[in-house]
Amino acid sequence: DDDDDDDDEREPSATGRGSEEASTARSEGQPRPEEAPAQPGAKRAKSPGMGAASKAKMKLAAKKSMKRWDPGHRKLKKRAKDVARVVRNHPRPEGKLSVRVNTDFPRTMALLREHHKDSWVGEKLQRVWEAMWKDGDMVVFELWYGPKLIAADIAHVVGKSFYVATRFFEQEYRKFQPGFLLALAETKVLAGAGFRLWDLGGTDSSPMMAYKQDITVRMSRPEFLARFAPLRGGRAAPLASGTVVEDIQTEHLILS
Question: How high is the pLDDT of residue 228?
């Protein structure tokens, strides 16, 4: 329904923002093509900012775009059924499948380096993340199989939005669909805590991004901002560290 208010949603919307919009950014201090260079001594006009009418127009466009995304979330529901089938039927001889939060940051970083050998996450950024993690500004959702960490989402909290900076899973345990399993269990936890947006950032046509087509909706930057803006000043419940799902069953999955 186009008249539904975004804040009334009970489940967080998952987004994969298109990367093509990034090309519209300009370098700091570089004039726009239509702008003439400022004359010496001339006062620069103030930016008018975004008025109420522009914000309303952006929000309306975002709501109308819902028609394009995936009515009924067919792909997500299909994937959720597949993962639920795995949860019900696959034996777990090595122990329970559990979801934990912020229990082993060093192990998470080590596995991230092993999984993404050409990752953009270098040593300097990892040190920054570790400092943020210690200060509570970085959240790591972890999927464990018995004593083994097999998948993780490394994220930032912004109001009622949860931005996943990067994620990985161990190929050895792909029979459990660990990336999708973590996504579906994690978003159920986030929804219960009051989050309304699960943001996976930009996307493109590379194989590494293909999974986003199943569990997110792709939107333009203006559409994303229309959904993000009213959430950034909100406050979800704090995410406690430790085990949040001790033994994953189908009822722990969103849309199961």
Answer: 92
pTM of the model: 0.71
3-state secondary structure of 128: helix
Cα angle 13-134-180, degrees, rounded to a multiple of 5: 30
Which pair of tokens denotes residue 43?
């006062």
pLDDT of 155: 95
> Which tokens sit at 231?
């959430």
Is the separation of the CB atoms in 152 and 141 below 8 Å? yes
Structure tokens at 162: 């949860």
The DSSP line for 194-226 is: T--EEEEEEE-SSGGGTTHHHH-EEE-HHHHHH
Number of H helices, E strands in the chain: 7, 8
Distance, CA of 160 to CA of 195 (rounded, Å): 4
Under a CB-based contact definition with an 8 Å cutoff, are residues 163 and 156 in contact? yes
Buried b (16+ CB within 10 A) or exposed e, 219-238: bebebbbbbbbbbeeeebee
What's the average pLDDT block by block, 10 residues per block, for the chain (256 residues)? 38 53 33 41 48 65 49 75 93 96 94 77 84 89 97 94 92 94 94 92 65 72 90 93 96 83
Q: Compute the distance between CA of residue 139 and CA of residue 145 in angstroms, rounded to an integer.
A: 20
* Phi/psi-derived region of residue 59, left when phi > 0, alpha when psi is between -120 and 50, beta in every other case: alpha
